[in-house]
Amino acid sequence: MATTAHTLLVALVSLLVVVGPCHAIRPMPRPTTSLAAQRMATANGITAIYNFGDSLSDTGNLLREGDATGVLKYTTGLPYGSTIGGATGRCSDGYLMIDFLAKDLGLPLLNPYLNKDADLKHGANFAVAGATALDAVALARRGVVVPHTSSSLGVQLEWFKEFMSANNTKSSQEIREKLAQSLVMVGEIGGNDYNYAFQANKPLAGGERNLYNFGRMVTGAVEAMVLVPEVVRSITSAARELLDMGATRLVIPGNFPLGCVPSYLSAANEKDPAAYDSNGCLIGLNLFAQMHNVLLQEQIRELRAAYPAATIAYADYFYAYVQMLRDAGKTGFDKGSVMKACCGTGGGAYNVDMDRMCGAPGTTVCARPDQYLSFDGVHLTQRAYRVMTDLLYHKGFASPAPVEFPR
Questions:
Q1: Coiled-coil stretches, from where to where (predicted)?
Q2: Active site residue 376
Q3: Which of 66, 142, 208, 220 would disulfide-bridge 198, Cβ 3.0–4.6 Å?
């Protein structure tokens, strides 16, 4: 019988050929060094940030929903937030990319929308850990159950509209004027739609490599692939609504290289060396992530054509992460721990047990999170998020640049 990796790889490659070209190596972005670009600095007139997404950028909404279950059960308490003095609802040991971006723009940290006592003059964060691009009904039609929050991208968009209307902004023109001075982040979101499809079909009986588990893995892969066009459409439809409301600067991130994520690597437990690339990442899963990214970039090009006056940036999380992974040893990370979770259990190559996630009884936390890329096998450490922010917004991995910083 062909290996799981080979079968999934063939299927994914076939789909990518249909979808469109995808380059294996991303050319290094060209830095903008002109004096004019440097003078554009200081926040480029941005006075607010509005963010939509999931656990990669939630700064406390799930905590306030009180709906943390399953793999997110322990994210609202220590050791999450241990680097910044306590848990805040951020799924990391400390700050996230959205925090560092706000700091770099000279703005306050973005407060969660559900914190009704917070100052939201400089924007609001609508992201909720566990959120999906598609709503629970749409996913249920595909046989995918949403185990956490029901605050999908559509719900977050409604919150945004309510917020804009309720904060002394009575007319659509006033909203347009406010958005003209704002940066709008549409994601990252969509990863959980795929996570839940894979999770529902994960191998049973300790991951034994038998025909039954092989069938479950193939089913999960097929269900996830079927979701891709719908997920991308949901993201770009939300972006279109925001542009119609007056947004002039949008960032739409792509998916991370799933084949480099410790939780996926641990769950796949693939024994065939040919299934891995030179970075130690699973080729098949990375091709799946790129399938999403290729379709998303095609839709973003259509948005740019339809809204030529707006800056619509694609944030290349995939290649920014790959670059960080390749440079890990040179940038102070422990090269031997780049695929391991700082917080988890099980040891081994990945230190991840999806049935006992970070914070659960029996899990341990590394002494130096700043030497790890992954905090809990799913989410990154504060230091990794800082490096990702630099790559995306200071070194050209978000293009065209949504904001120009001095170099």
A1: none
A2: yes
A3: 220
